[in-house]
Design brief:
Elements lengths: L5 E5 L6 E3 L4 E10 L2 E10 L1 H15 L9
Length: 70
Amino acid sequence: MTPASWHASPKRDALPSIDHPTGEVRVPVVLYDVDQGQAVVPLVLSRREAERLRNALTALLSPTLVRVSP
């Protein structure tokens, strides 16, 4: 297993959860070596990290506004 071949994907049918006292968000992910699942681990984000990730993903996935000249 070389680091260049590793990647992670959200675990299918598993929802993120939040630890309300700490604000931590946990996202179950599967670690892969090429396309072979190796482990299921939680991606643990602070509330601030989760908000930044949400904002970045929203910006990437939102349609781009195109100005139209009158």
